[in-house]
Each structure stands twice: as C-alpha cells, then as structure tokens.
Write a structure and sequence with these properties.
By secondary structure, the protein is mainly alpha-helical. The protein contains ten helices and three strands, in the order H-E-H-H-E-E-H-H-H-H-H-H-H. It folds into two domains: 69 residues, Arc Repressor Mutant, subunit A (Orthogonal Bundle); 142 residues, GntR ligand-binding domain-like (Four Helix Bundle (Hemerythrin (Met), subunit A), Up-down Bundle), CATH 1.20.120.
Length: 218
Amino acid sequence: MKEVNKDSLGRTIYGRICRDLVRGKLRPNQKITIRGLAESLGTSSTPVRDAVQRLLQDNALEQRSVRDVRVPVLTARQYMEISYMRAELEGLAAAKAAEVAEDRDVARLKHIIMRNEEAIAAARWSKATELNQKFHFALAGMADMPLMLDVLHRLWLRTGPLIAGYYEGAKEDLVQQHHVIVSACERRDAASARTAMRADIEGARKGIAAYITSFSAD
C-alpha cells in the first residue's frame, strides 16, 4: 500500500508541474530546484525529484548542469514547428467542435472568454494565459477527441511557458479570435472556426519569435 501511495503522489506532483508549465506559471529560462518545488507543493524531495526526471525525459525541462535545471527556451525553429502543428491540429479541433457544439458548450466558451477579459482588464496576465489555454483545450474536449487532447497537452507542455511570457510582456488581446470561434460554433460553421483558430495561433508567431530572440540577447 505504501508503494501505491508513493506512486500516486509521484503522479500527482508530475501532473501539478505539468499544469504549471502548460498554463505558463513557470516561465522560459526559470531555474527549478527540487527543494523549492517540494516546499511549494508541501511534500518531500523524493517524489519531486522523480517528477523532474520524467519532465527531463519529456524535454519539458532541461538540465544544464548537475545543479541547474531550467524551463527550456525553445529555439525559433522549434517554436515554429510546434506552431505549425498546433495550427493544423487545433484548427481541426475547432472545426469539429463547431460541428457538434450545443448551447451549453457555447455558454461555457463564452464564460471562459468573459473571465479572460476580466483577467486582462485587471492585468492578471498569469490568469489570462491560463484561461487562454483552457479555451483551446475546451474545443478539443467538445470535439470528443481524447487523442488530440493528449497530443496538444504535449505541445503546450513545451510552449506554455513561452506563450505566457510573451503575452505578459506584449499585453496583447488574447481573445479577439476566440469571439469569432464562438460565433462560428453558434452557427455550426466549421470552416470559419478552423480559419479563426489558425489566425489566433499564426497571429502571435512574429511576436513570440522576437520574444525568443530576447533571451539570446541577454
């Protein structure tokens, strides 16, 4: 039973750190320490160390030296590859979501957008980027595409910190295309939903590429 509990704790901590990466609570180039994570999570170092090792294998964290583990800064080429993949996959998810959207689905998307706009108005950029991610994942959930969600989770694991860091600095509108997507869902217009999602992802490329360059200039 102790071994089962240990494994369960390890999975929980791994999932918590993954969520912090996906939602941008951990930022590019941020140094991660086992002790710091253990203290923030209120647990011992052992399960945190195990979780960090898994994240290193996932390439979600990188080890620069024995005592230096950080959130990676993607190269511009790596980011662009992931961005192209997201545009295709999330465009498909948005299209499928629009085809099957029900009133309660549309209401949920509108609620996420409303909360996002409130966070932006209050300059709560960490919360705003978390809600941005929640909107994107909600569409794949509406489309009933669990394999898609798994792939998107892995892509966002790599890019979540980058997206959050960029938007906090740029203070740009995260939800402009989201309104268009919701309108498309109300009309069951799959093509418009796909186009708007692609525009949402593609519109940030230039700014995020410049944000990546800023790290090499430090």
